[in-house]
Amino acid sequence: MRSHGQSVRFGTMAAAIFVIGQVSNAAAQTVEELQHLSIEDLTNVEITSVSKRPEPLSQAAASIYVISHDDIRRSGAVNVPEALRLAPNLIVAQDSSQTYAISARGFNATTSSNKMLVLIDGRAIYAPVFSGVYWDQLQVPLDDIERIEVISGPGGTLYGANAVNGVISIITRNSRDTQGGLADLKAGPLDQVGLLRWGGTFGDQGTYRVYGQGFGMGPTVLPGGASAKDNWSGEQTGFRSDWSSGADTFMTEGDVYRNINSLNGQQSGGDIVGHWNHAFSGTAALQAQMSYDHQVRVMPGYHDGYDSYDAQLQYTQSLGRHVFVGGGEYRLITDQLVNTANVFVLVPSKQTTGVGDFFAQDTYAIFNNLKLTLGAKLEYSSYTGLDVLPNLRLGWAVTDQAFLWAAVSRAVRTPSRLDRDLTAPVLLAPAPDFESEKLIAYELGYRGRPTPKTSLSISLYYNVYQDLRITGYSMASGYLFQLLNAEEGETHGLEAWGDWSVLSWWRLSAGLNLEHKDLHVKPGFVDISAGQSEGFDPGYQAMFRSSMDLPHAIELDAGLRFVGQLHGAPIKQYTEATFRVGWHATDRIDVSLSGSNMFAPRHAETVTPGSSIQYPQRSIYLGLRWKF
């Protein structure tokens, strides 16, 4: 599941075509521990997303970057998309006040960022209309996030269809780590966010937290400098509880929210999740999770909503040199879209679809320092029938400080409602035979500590795509405009990042992302959308970050991001800077001053085809954080 942001206001989607175009309850480090980890400790932070079981980051055979709770706090970010800018293996571009395009390894645009799977505590954040993420509806309180694990590369074997180019797994903190009260306020001329939270206990082994959050986001501006009048505001409330009894642990959490924008639009919804984990004697565990998600988006002349029910079961067993993970999942989605704002509609307007799967993966230790992972997922979709998603990975710990890995994977993006059912009289015919987009990915990587004070990760990839989407027609069938599986080709690139502990109180970080695309329409087809489904990707992105712990309990953080010109879009290369100055006034009170977009009062990052380019503005705000 991929990235998007605001409403795919149906007018936005239609214009793009018309132009024409887990919860894993593994023990995790506390926030206080993560704040003081050395370079060596950071490379061994325990993660769960690569293998769906706990393992050290240093031994994960995948391109994965971990954003810690402290990273988020010190970044000064006001929402999840801004926090994701910390990941050097992601491309994050803001399109409007509500809308973001977020992807890994290409295809980044508000209408094509549909190849990333996003999870919150194992719950998939998925909009069935366009296979993407409404980022304005993902308002997880940042202080409640323990870490974000960002995998670039396929994750289909463990996570299923749509985990094509990567997985973003947001893992929230156990409620035992959020006891007592917290008031967190960030306010400036453009953006304001306020959080009030309380955590307590029940019984001998139970803890909980409840929270309320409100926010207001200022508008972007148009090329001439006038306001785009896309400011919006919202409120959200929720809870999480955790408790244990012997070998069993339980977690429940839920949220409800409502957003209102200046275009008389409203988004509302809620979710609830229940998770159970049982540890057997020895080295086995059984997990079960159920969730329900309800979302509604309303704009003048437009109504989009869905209800999603999901059940998951997973079993993990260590036996000798083998570590086995297997399980299954079933998801039922009922969605409805009604559009009277223009001629683009879905037929039928309401539909129920189901997706079920079974997966199994075994990691075999050939030698103590050489491990082979082999797995596959069998997934059945109402749209496309059966897909087989295999995965082969090899990890070699050459030394205690150097780890090499290689992988070959297959992943697919199953059709969305837009792909199959979008139609408009005369302009666009439905595409009932639209198939899954397919990827075979080849990856090679290194992760290690060249010196005691440095860490480095380098990944190379070569992706082969088939049956990608275009908006066009087949010359054999005549001038009938449809969404078609008529593009193919390759992409390749490099992802690299590292850290350097210059001094005990000063850490430098850097990241580099290079990508080249060679995609082409199949013979006999014509793409009338000028390659919009390929996305608008920069050839390079470079990042630098400095974090200092100064005397008198002062923190100083600064970041630079260099982004190359977007291919296929009239947006030039740009440089963007952020800063944060924080002061721990007492053990319970923190004061900060943060800013983003510091090199220019405004700049463009992406564009929605058929719409005016909108420029995110410079934002400066004061922060106050009080524990009580």
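(ticket continues) Second input and output from the same batch:
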Amino acid sequence: MMIRTLSLMLCCCCAVALWAAELPVTGVTLFSSGVGYIQRAGTVTDDAVVQLSFKPEQINDLLKSMVLLDLDGGQIGTVSYGAKDPITKTLGSFAIDLSDNPTYGQLLNRLRGVQVEVNGESVADVGTVLGVETKKIAAGKDQVIDVEVLNLLTDGGFRSIRLDEIMYLQVKDDRLNAELRDALKVLATGLDNQRKPVAIAFNGKGERHVIVGYLAETPIWKTSYRLVLGEKENALQGWAVVENTSDADWTNVRLSLVSGRPISFIEDLYSPLYVRRPVVQPQLYASINPVAYQASVVGGAIFGIDGTAAEAEDDSNEGGNGQWHAVSGKPQPESAPMNQLMSQSVQSAAAARDLGQAFEYAIKDPVILPRQQSALIPIVTGPAGAWKISIYNPAVQAQFPLYGLRLKNATGAHLMGGPITVYDGDVYAGDAVIEDMQPDEQRLISYAIDLGVTADHNEGAGTEEILAITLVKGLLNVQRKFRRTVDYTFAIKDGKDRKIMVEHPINPGWDLVAPKEFDENTGDLYRFILPVSAKDGGKLTVTEERTVKESLRVMEMNAETLVSYQKTGKISPAVRDALQKVIQAQGKLTDLRAQRAQKEQRITKIRAGQNDIRQNMDRLDHASDLYKRYVTMLDQQETEILQLQKDIEGLQQQEDAQRKELNDYVAGLNLE
């Protein structure tokens, strides 16, 4: 109802102008988090209402982020938009409920008490609706059908009219007619879910400049790079992939690209909410298959690279890449190097600016990009430092190293992560991928398999050594050292020397023993640089150690285990003697337990025999000699059982005393 009332106000108030044309898009800022800030600008005169339209899914971002400016003394009025109630709820609010898709008869039944005019081939009358009922009517011999009839109260009395005979029916109540039309309009609006109008009121006098800004979901802008390696200089060129998926053309738009990830989410502010349920979308990161090398946290600056070309001494890494000509695949006539031609032909169209939490590329010239079109815009051109090296990581490629570069960002601009195509001179060398790089930051990239080198890695079986044993307060404290080695071996097949960077995983708890120093440490990897000659090949042995301490309760250890610790060479004489006493005491306990067990078994055997004797006695005459002999035997056995029980009790007492003595002895030891 508010929208209809507002529409009447706008139509009736002749002092307010409705701007049918949308404000043109004048500025776009795209973020790498999947949102864009859209700015529209134009002029209005006096009190005006600017009409914009948006997709329903854009309304939440609009309500959350919209910024309105009236720059020449005006004021912002009301921003009106259609409420987003479920259509069935809206339809249910009208006098004539169409929410359940009623039939003709059901609709007329809801008009009870309303005056209608009915016309048909054989009927014409005006009356008040009493209701609709179903009657059975003969349709032929022995055939009856159900027919809906409309019951009316007319000036001539009650009248029933078959619905299939009515050709025209008009509701005589103007108010109900309007309600019915409004309900049908709501239905029609529900069918058109492509665009939703938003009316923005600007109040003031004279001609004024106004701005409307808001966030909208946009495709993530992407980057791709070209790196050309030259004899003296290297050239890096970065391009931004920008997509205009909106319904508005970008004509002379100020475009900025921001390589930051501000937190962005969707909260449903458009729908009437009875329970507040924000919808939060996770940040979107590209899934990348190529190797993205971590930045080093220790080392990595040892190469001293700048914007110059790869060092000449490593030109041996150029071959074996399956290379092809950058343009035609044919030999190129002598001309300027490709890196110089690229720098001359393409200039960066963006001015880079550090925003602290992000980095902005502001496109210098206005951009023209029609809707549903994409563009490739140069944003970075400049020198790059590059030092050639082969990189071996068996988790990436077990048989061969990869051709790689240590790349230094010498452009002075932030580089957002993306694919990078490497050209060696004017020859395609391979593809790589980089993560975000700050100015002057160095990063490894790999772009091809080095088939001129075969690699192998072999993990040794590992060793274990007991370093020390102490005996303190009943605990046997054992210090062990574990050692393991991994051998990396390389053989060169193409006759060219290499420098190979070996990446070895850092295992928590293990200390690096050999080599004593690493060239880089990324936090997850050690990196070692190994010169490999074409004649002799190369080998790197990485040795790691781990020390483990454990405490064992002496009283819970058996004699065999104690003997094994007693025989180790890393034990002091005092601890060895103490263990010998413990072993002897445990031997006595074992003997006592064995004696007690033997006597308990004897009692068990006697009891079993007595059961057999008693069963035999039940079948004998008590006066018989055999019966009397059984009685005597049972008496003797009971005497033996009593003695055995007495012996067992004595053995148990000796065992308890021996155990207490051993516990006291062990608990009192303090042999470091």
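Agent notes: The mean pLDDT is 81. The chain has five domains: 1-26+39-102+174-216, 115-172, 222-255+290-451, 456-554, 559-671. Closing as not reproducible unless the customer responds.
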